Amino acid sequence: DQQVKQNSPSLSVQEGRISILNCDYTNSMFDYFLWYKKYPAEGPTFLISISSIKDKNEDGRFTVFLNKSAKHLSLHIVPSQPGDSAVYFCAASAGAGAQKLVFGQGTRLTINP
Amino acid sequence: DTGVSQDPRHKITKRGQNVTFRCDPISEHNRLYWYRQTLGQGPEFLTYFQNEAQLEKSRLLSDRFSAERPKGSFSTLEIQRTEQGDSAMYLCASSAPRVTGGLDTQYFGPGTRLTVL
C-alpha cells in the first residue's frame, strides 16, 4: 500500500527554467510533508517542509505547495541550476515530534545546461 | 564532520551469514531512526529510538532483525541468517526535538549498502 506516490520517475528541465515535482498521498492522517534531495553515494538531505495548516512554504529558490483537498503537494525550484540534479523524495508524517517518515519512490531531476 | 556516520559503507555477505551495522548520530541528537531503501524505492521506516528506548518497530522488521542503542548514543542493526531479499541500502537518521515544536528534522547518514550473495 503506497501511501505516498511520486508518479514521475524522472524529469528533465533546462537550466534557468522552473522545475515542478509532484507528490500525491492517500493517508488523511498525514499532517507534515517534507522534501528530501539525494545525491549518489550520499544519504537524503532535508530540503523544505510544510505543515498541513499551511498551503505554501518558501525557502529561497524552493517553494512547496500543499493542496489538502486533492491530497497533493508539489515542489517548485526556480530558477533551476545544474547542482539541483539529484533524486527528490517526497515524505509525509502523521504528527509532530519524532515520527516515522513515509517516503515516495523518488523523482530523478536532471537540469540540462 | 559532525554529521551522521555509518559503518561499514558497503558489506557483501553470503546467504545465511549474520551482519551488523553501526550508526553514530549527531552528538546532541537523542532520537535515532533506521530505514531501508531498495532499488527504485524511497526509504522505508524500520525502527526508532529515543535515547536507549526502542519506541517503534515496523512490521518490516522480522525476527531476524534486531536493533540496539545501549547507551543512547550509537546504534547497531543486526541481521541474522541473511537472505537475498535483505540486499538494500540501510540508512540511519537522527534528530532532536525542536524548541518551537513541530516535526523533528531527520538528518541522514550515507547508508550501508548490503549485498547478499
What is the gist of this entry?
The complex is a heterodimer of chains A (113) and B (117). Chain A has 113 residues and is mainly beta. In chain A, 0% of the residues lie in helices and 53% in strands.
Keywords:
A: 113 residues; 5-stranded antiparallel β-sheet; 11 strands; B: 117 residues; 4-stranded antiparallel β-sheet; globular
Q: What is the chain-wise order of helices and strands of chain B?
A: EEEEEEEEEEE
Helix content of chain A: under 10%
Instruction: Please mark out the parts of chain A with pLDDT under 50 across 5 or more consecutive residues, or reply none.
Output: none
| Biggest contact | A-B, 29 and 30 residues
**What is the first-to-last residue Cα distance of chain B?**
33 Å
- H-E order of chain A: EEEEEEEEEEE
Average of the residue pLDDT scores of chain A: 95
Q: Based on CA inertia axes, which overall geometry of chain B fits?
A: globular
The Rg value of chain B, from CA coordinates, equals 14 Å
Number of helices of chain A: 0
Give me the secondary-structure category of chain A.
mainly beta
This entry's quaternary arrangement is heterodimer
- Care to count the β-strands of chain A? 11
Task: Report mean pLDDT of chain B, rounded to a whole number.
Answer: 93
Describe this structure in words.
The complex is a heterodimer of chains A (113) and B (117). Chain A is mainly beta. Chain A is 0% helix and 53% strand. In chain A, the strands form 2 sheets. In chain A, strands 2, 4, 5, 9, 10 and 11 form a 6-stranded mixed sheet that branches. A 5-stranded antiparallel sheet of chain A has the order 1-3-8-7-6, with no helix packed on it. In chain A, strand 6 and strand 7 (62-67) form a beta hairpin. Chain A is globular. Chain A starts with a strand and ends with a strand. The mean pLDDT of chain A is 95. Chain B is an all-beta fold. Chain B is built from no helices and 11 strands. In chain B, the strands form 2 sheets. In chain B, strands 2, 4, 5, 6, 9, 10 and 11 form a 7-stranded mixed sheet that branches. In chain B, strands 1-3-8-7 form a 4-stranded antiparallel sheet, with no helix packed on it. In chain B, strand 7 (65-68) and strand 8 form a beta hairpin. The N and C termini of chain B lie far apart (33 Å). The model of chain B has no long low-confidence stretch (mean pLDDT 93). The chains are: A mainly beta (113), B mainly beta (117). The A-B interface holds A 4, 6, 9, 32, 34, 36, 41-46, 49, 51, 89, 91, 93, 95-106 and B 4, 31, 33, 35, 40-45, 48, 50, 55-56, 58, 91, 93, 95, 97, 101-111.
